[in-house]
Amino acid sequence: MIRTITILFVGIASISFAAIFIRFCDDVPAIMIATYRLSIASIILLVFSMIKGVSFRTVSRRDMVLSLAGGVFLGLHFIFWTTSLKYTSVASSVVLVTTNPIFVGIFSWLFLKEKQYAEIIAGTILCLLGSVVIAAGDSGLHSLILLDKKALTGDVLALMGAVMGSAYLLTGSRVRERLDILTYITIVFTASALFLIGTSFVMGISPAGYRPSSYMYMVLLAVIPQLVGHTSINWALEHLRAGMIAISILGEAIGATILAYLFFGETVSTFQVAGMVLVFAAIIIASRKGKKTLRQPV
Q1: Which of 77, 122, 194, 286 has the largest CB neighbor count within 10 A?
Q2: Is residue 209 left, alpha or beta, with left meaning phi > 0 and alpha meaning psi from -120 to 50?
Q3: Residue 18: CB partners within 8 Å, gap ≥ 6?
Q4: Neighbours of 40 (CB within 10 A)
Q5: Which of 136, 22, 74, 95 minimizes the C-alpha distance to 251?
Q6: CB-based contacts of 237-241 (< 8 A; 24+ apart in sequence)
Q7: Closest-CA residue to 192 (of 76, 81, 97, 85)
Q8: Is 227:41 a contact under the CB 8 Å cutoff?
């Protein structure tokens, strides 16, 4: 369990850099940032899979379909969330996009028939409360209260990203019980990359003509938050409940808020510090019932 929590922590720390790298690519359309992120990551994984001799023919039709669907959900998650960062602050966007514990809890109860333990429910309530407290100290959500259309657009996009991210986690939670981590992420990341490439082509978004530094940050985005971060999270999905993972991902809001303060001077208020404490408490409480009980193969 300690090993699983450690790997999950590394994953959360890694994805916390995503919003920062995205902000440094302010000359690149949001969808193209996501396209480069997944395309670079999938190319690296496909080469590595070839070296390791991974055979995708052994994947069942059901798991392949679910993995491909997971890739589409991941692509939509990135489209909505990356676009939201163009409209609202890092803290607001990350806090809202990581409200997925409530969606994961509802979806896993409705579709996967998973029992929701008291610790998971308490953790969900605490993490949502922590998110609200963090948001209360952020000027982006103050603008939402004043019906700032730009902030409202960003906040709605971030929430849509949370819904897609929840679908991605739940799909992975089911498939990772049967597929090894390399096979799974290679299929999902490649499917997501192809989906994003197609979307960018249809929208007529050019992959060229941006600052050299933006390409560097998109490579970093692919390597650190995607390959290190998402791989760690998907690895943990084999061992922990999706609800526990969703709650833990709220740690990204803490990391991103701190990094936004260091890189962009976005203020960290007393509200945000208090919210971070609540999120940490939520993760600790949920971890008590976070371990997954594997179903029998079907």
Answers
A1: 286
A2: left
A3: 221, 225, 229, 252, 256
A4: 21
A5: 95
A6: 237/169, 237/172, 237/173, 237/176, 238/176, 238/177, 238/181, 238/292, 239/4, 239/291, 239/292, 240/4, 240/8, 240/290, 240/291, 240/292, 241/108, 241/114, 241/120, 241/173, 241/289, 241/290, 241/291, 241/292
A7: 76
A8: yes
**Would the pTM count as exceeding 0.85?**
no
User: CA 257, CA 19: separation in Å to the nearest integer?
Assistant: 9
From 270, 221, 249, select the one nearest 104 (Cα to Cα). Answer: 249
- The C-alpha atoms of residue 169 and residue 110 are separated, in whole angstroms, by 15
pLDDT tens string 251-293: 776 787 788 778 877 766 677 677 767 766 776 676 555 455 5
Domain ranges of the chain: 2-52+61-289
The residue among 140, 85, 152, 122 whose CA lies nearest residue 244 is 122
- Average pLDDT of the chain, as a whole number: 81
Residue corresponding to tokens 């579709």: 111
Distance of alpha carbon 224 from alpha carbon 213, whole angstroms:
16
Task: Quick: pLDDT tens for 7-38.
Answer: 888 998 899 898 889 889 989 998 999 999 99
105-115 b/e (C-beta count within 10 Å ≥ 16 → b): bebbeeeeebe
